[in-house]
Specification:
mainly alpha; two-stranded antiparallel ribbon; 11 strands
Length: 1173
């Protein structure tokens, strides 16, 4: 074999492409020792110098081959004694390949080539060529045996080889018409040895493979020979072709080996080995050619953009797995791509890193042009949509060395903090309107630009936007299904006219698309993590930067010029959940979560700092410096990192996401009501339809069964870890983890309760009860967090009934390990501590928000009612009275709420009724101008919200007072001097509103929507009165109340009898109470006349009443009545005279003054008695 192509093959595959010029010894033999020669390393040369050197070598080889051809014509040919052409192929590991029954490339079409005519034989004109005389053939006699034709074994072998090369290399060669086939490219070779039966009787030899490939690869991209190739094959270029050859060779090799397992003849066995040897050589040579083309892209014209071709091949894996270059039928780590990576790395690690960097650059450049998963993608560069490009990066990382190189690229991380580069500001380019764009296209571009106004603002190179625009993982994770995308608006067009089933189908379609993409993201990150320590550390640093730079992303309206997009943060949380999956599913691995991680800034990257602007508070506020910086020596460092990083990522995504979805749902509800009240058309209202579009778009993520379920499983695992910690260790845990799990559970109970079905929440329940217990009440002092824990018990674990319309499945509220009984009645710790814990909590929520405390207390009251009706909790209620301080705090909360809320409700309901009548009158309502109507409507909605917030609490408090006071010990607590006066005042105040102000006759439209049930409340109120009817102290305090009048009590008794609200003994007791209070009133009036002459020092300075138990305040020196200061300190823990901190335990009994008052009072009574006599 001679000519330029063999020499080119020898050069490219003999190391020339990867190691520069090979040294030669004095005998002219090549020194293939890696260029070391005498042991001295040559100085490194630049890429340009290397390329120039290789091109010079190419020119020298071409000249040498021409000289050899001329010399061969004189000497009768070249090669060795066997006629074999010299071969210098590069040694590579024999790979092994994944297969598919489908061919990896489409069949090649017939190629048009210039017809090669054999040279005409020159014959002298004066010479006449006469035909040879014909010989007569004798017919065989009848006795002659005609031998049967014998098949030529060499011809058969040649045919097999030819067909094999057609199937694998998609090429043909030879001069005959039968040597061509429409499905292959026909090659014109320099020498006919390959197909000349005299020179090579058995056909193609292993040494010919290099020349065949060189001939095929040397074709010009404009050659007519390639015009009939399938478009996809041309698109993937030289690398795609070689990858296909490698894959097909592996499939053929496997098939031949399966045939070799059968019994075969000796010569067939030899032929089989020869065929397998050719296939192995093809796999080896295509890997070598590919490595050479990637390092020297202009080696072949077809490979001048080899890195881009490789990127395209990687991206087609998701669309055409049959042509995958990362899968091979022969086993693990034998694919074309893996083999090429190993070959490149073995030749030159720096060149390998450069090639991978170029491939990554091509993919990320294309990725940067994709704005969401809803984009169709571009044909420029690598092309394809986000899924294809993310898949390309994922496939690139199937080789660990390539994954490490990707992680080392400069674009993998944002600049380090406090560096000049980090402070640089970037101005993103604005989208340009292409020339010739239609009006519709221009409108779309303007809309997209307005959507990205904030995102297109300048940003720092170290910031949330830089993370997603300038880093590899950021470009991948930023893609999602944004609600603002035009495709989303068109898919959910006219949402008010759609059925819920139709909306669900659209939402599920988007959700599947998103989850498919997130799966690729998970695979990519996992591949980088397992590739090695270097790439894993770079990934961890990227996670750390993402959490630090987005610390403010949990706001209602985060600044997108400083933080990353919502889509990136959601995808990040999905990735972190996936990394946590091994120890979520395995409790033993979960025990490897070392709590010391949060106390080690070196390990957590300062994400869990306790000081500074971004400090994260702990469960307890009392943590010493030693506790905050406890030693951290984990058994496994990666598991704690994943656990705590996941908790932070969820805190920035699903927690604020739930709040935003709730706001949207609330806006939809109120807009719906407003339009209905104004007799508007919901179907055509643009604002209502837009709100619905946003709500449905948000549901893609926030109601995803897979995502929400994974979040629940994570938090249940986290609760299990917290339950195993000692108290001193638990207090150092980040407060946000407990707060977040409460927020997620409360969100789920309101909007996606069905997704909880089948999820184990036992650890969540047990942690909630533990943190609410009195033992831990001093550890968790955040009252808002404690109130949230109570909400979780109500929203998730309170079984549904006629009063509590819960949608949470029974499988969640009940413990499967306790025979399906509710957690509230089966859990041991609950039966011991929950009832007193809830009474304590009822008083503590006074310190939460003005409006929020109503909701909290309504839920606590419902929980107490359920526990009261459960025999399992009766002993705990008996123990409530043992803690007088806690009980008074609880009782004070009840009385405060009723005093504040019920009066406001009874004043607001008439105003609501007035507006309802006004709106129902078209003439009166139409006579108002738009501004007046908006003002009235706004005030009306505020009134409705206030009543809807307050009345449920008022109803539940009255019922709670009724059932609690059926217990004698609890009733005695309410009769304490500190509580009885306030209780009597509150009950009479409510009675005045219901009976004295004609509250029973108050009418509003749809009263149930406000929970307004006046007769039911009056019944509950009279039950409470009757339970205290026999108590002298209660009778006296009712008589002293400013709300008491004999007429009020008399009217209340008559109303109860008339409406049948009380019957039997209860009615008799209520009637008796009216008489007793009237008698006590007369005594009270007499005592008040007596106290008018009392010295000022005997009067309470705050209430101006005669004191019964004077005490001195150590902080100011003033003396007040004990019941007065007790009541004050329940609501305000300071001295009322100087605002200094004060507790009831610090007050000092004024015994001397008390004795003096007693003497004066006895004398005054004696004088009055004598005067009366």
């Amino acid at each position: 074999m001679s000519g330029f192509l063999p020499d080119l093959a020898s050069w490219a595959l003999g190391g020339g492409a990867g190691q520069g010029e090979a040294a030669t010894n004095e005998n002219g033999e090549q020194n293939n020792d890696g260029g070391e020669g005498d042991g001295n390393n040559e100085p490194a040369i630049s890429e340009e110098q290397m390329r120039a050197k290789r091109m010079a070598r190419l020119a020298a080889l071409e000249k040498a081959s021409a000289d050899a051809a001329a010399e061969g014509s004189n000497n009768g040919g070249g090669g060795d004694s066997n006629g074999n052409a010299p071969s210098n192929s590069m040694d590579v590991d024999k790979p092994v390949v994944p297969s598919s029954s489908t061919p990896s490339h489409g069949e090649a079409q017939p190629m048009e080539v210039d017809e090669v005519k054999p040279p005409a034989t020159s014959t002298p004109k004066d010479v006449t060529m006469e035909p040879a005389p014909k010989k007569k053939m004798k017919a065989p006699s009848s006795n002659t045996t005609v031998p049967s034709p014998v098949a030529d074994p060499l011809a058969k072998l040649r045919r097999k080889k030819t067909l094999l090369l057609r199937r694998v290399l998609l090429v043909t060669f030879g001069d005959g018409a039968s040597d061509r086939t429409p499905s292959c490219v026909h090659l014109l070779l320099d020498d006919d040895e390959i197909y000349n039966t005299e020179k090579s009787p058995s056909g193609v030899q292993i040494r010919h493979v290099a020349e065949l490939l060189a001939a095929r690869l040397s074709l010009s991209p404009t050659s007519r020979s390639l015009e009939t190739m399938p478009p996809q094959a041309n698109k993937l270029g030289l690398i795609g072709y070689l990858g296909g050859c490698h894959k097909r060779a592996g499939e053929e090799w496997k098939e031949l080996r399966s045939q070799g397992n059968k019994k075969t003849k000796k010569n067939e066995e030899n032929n089989l080995e020869e065929l397998c040897g050719i296939l192995e050589e093809i796999r080896s040579q295509v890997v070598s050619y590919s490595a050479s083309s990637l390092m020297v892209p202009d080696l072949f014209e077809l490979g001048n953009d080899a890195p881009l071709q490789l990127a395209k091949c990687l991206s087609t894996t998701s669309t055409d797995p049959a042509s995958s270059i990362t899968f091979d039928v022969l086993g693990k780590n034998t694919s074309f791509y893996f083999s090429v990576c190993e070959e490149l790395h073995s030749q030159d690690a720096e060149s390998f890193a450069t090639v991978i960097g170029d491939v990554v650059k091509h993919i990320t450049d294309s990725l940067s042009k994709v704005t969401s998963l809803l984009d169709e993608g571009s044909n420029e560069g690598v092309g394809g949509n986000g899924l294809f490009l993310a898949s390309a990066l994922r496939e690139l990382c199937t080789n660990k060395k390539a994954a490490v190189s990707l992680a080392k690229t400069p674009s993998f991380l944002v600049p380090a903090a406090n560096t000049p580069l980090a402070a640089e500001r970037v101005q993103p380019p604005l989208p340009q309107v292409p020339p010739g764009a239609s009006q519709q296209q221009m409108a779309l571009i303007r809309m997209m630009q307005s959507m990205r106004d904030q995102a297109s603002a300048p940003y720092l190179r170290r910031s949330g936007p830089a993370l997603e625009k300038d880093t590899v993982l950021g470009l991948v994770l930023r893609l999602g299904v944004p609600a603002e995308h035009p495709s989303m608006a068109s898919s959910f067009s006219n949402p008010a006219t759609r059925t819920r089933k139709d909306v669900s189908q659209i939402t599920d379609g988007f959700r599947r698309q998103l989850e498919l993409y997130q799966g690729k993201c998970n695979e990519l990150v996992k591949a980088l993590v397992v590739a090695g320590a270097q790439s894993r550390q770079r990934v961890i640093q990227w996670f750390t930067d993402a959490l630090l730079l987005n610390v403010n992303a949990d706001g209602t309206r985060p600044d997108r010029s400083k933080v990353s997009s919502e889509e990136l943060l959601v995808n990040l949380s999905v990735v972190m959940l996936k990394l946590c999956e091994p120890f979520i599913n395995d409790p033993k691995k979960a025990l490897l979560v070392d709590p010391g991680f949060v106390s080690s800034p070196e390990s957590n990257g300062s994400i869990y700092n306790m000081t500074g602007d971004n400090a994260l508070p702990r469960l307890s506020q009392n943590i010493t410096d030693a506790e905050a910086l406890a030693p951290y020596n984990p058994k496994n460092s990666f598991i704690p990192l994943c656990f705590f990083f996941c908790s932070r990522s969820l805190s920035l995504t699903v927690v604020p996401g739930g709040g935003r979805y709730e706001n949207i749902a609330r806006n939809v509800y109120h807009t719906h009501r407003t339009i209905r009240q104004q007799n508007g058309d919901l179907r055509s209202d643009p604002r209502f339809n837009r709100l619905l579009q946003i709500q449905y778009a948000k549901e893609i993520v926030m109601m995803s069964p897979t995502y929400i379920t994974d979040v629940f499983r994570y938090y249940n695992m986290a609760a299990g870890i917290f339950l195993t910690m000692e108290k001193d260790l638990l207090k150092t845990m980040p407060e946000h983890i407990v707060d977040d799990l409460c927020s997620v559970l409360v969100y789920a109970s309101s909007f996606c309760a069905k997704l909880l079905s089948g999820v184990d929440v036992g650890n969540l329940y047990r942690l909630t009860v533990l943190l609410l217990s009195k033992e831990y009440s001093q550890l968790v002092r955040n009252y808002n967090l404690r109130a949230k824990l109570g909400d979780v018990l109500h929203d998730i674990f309170l079984p549904g009934n006629s009063e509590n319309h819960s949608e949470v499945p029974d499988s969640v509220t009940c413990d499967p390990l306790a025979g399906g009984r509710p957690y509230l009645t089966s859990d041991k710790l609950s039966k011991e501590t929950l009832a007193p814990s809830l009474l304590l909590l009822y008083g503590e929520v006074e310190n939460t928000g003005f409006y929020e405390k109503n909701d909290h207390r309504t839920k606590i009251a419902a929980l107490l009612k359920f526990l009261w009706d459960s025999p399992e909790h009766k002993p705990a209620f008996k123990r409530i009275t043992e803690d007088k301080k806690s009980f008074i705090t609880f009782a004070n909360g009840i009385i405060n709420e009723m005093n504040d809320k019920f009066a406001s409700v009874m004043e607001t309901l008439p105003a609501i009724r007035t507006v309802q009548l006004q709106m129902a009158n078209p003439q009166e309502w139409g006579a108002l101008n738009e501004e007046e109507r908006e003002t009235i409507t706004s005030r009306h909605e505020n009134n409705e919200r206030e009543v809807q917030r307050s009345l449920p609490l008022c109803n539940s408090v009255m019922k709670m007072l009724g059932f609690l006071n059926t217990d004698e010990d609890i009733r005695d607590m309410f009769l304490l001097p500190d509580m009885c006066p306030r209780l009597a005042n509150m009950l009479l105040h409510v009675l005045t509103k219901l009976v004295g102000s004609r509250g029973l006759g108050l009418k509003v439209e749809n009263p149930e929507s406000y929970n307004f049930r006046p007769k039911e409340m009056l019944q509950d109120l009279c039950v409470v009165f009757s339970s205290f009817a026999a108590a002298d102290a209660f009778q006296t305090e009712c008589a002293k109340s400013g709300y008491y009048t004999p007429e009020l009590m008399s009217k209340s008794v008559k109303t109860c009898r008339k409406l049948g609200l009380l019957v039997g003994e209860s009615m008799d007791l209520f009637d008796l109470l009216a008489t007793k209070v009237e008698d006590a009133s007369k005594v009270t009036i007499s005592d008040e006349d007596l106290y008018q002459d009392a010295p000022d020092e005997f009067l309470d300075p705050l209430m101006q009443e005669f004191m019964t138990d004077p005490v001195k305040l150590p902080t100011s020196g003033n003396i007040v009545d004990r019941k007065t200061i007790t009541q004050h300190l329940l609501n305000d823990g300071t001295d009322p005279f100087n605002r200094k901190k004060l507790s009831i335990d610090e007050v000092i009994p004024a015994n001397e003054l008390k004795e003096k008052m007693k003497v004066w009072l006895d004398n005054a009574k004696a004088k009055r008695a004598a005067k009366g006599n």
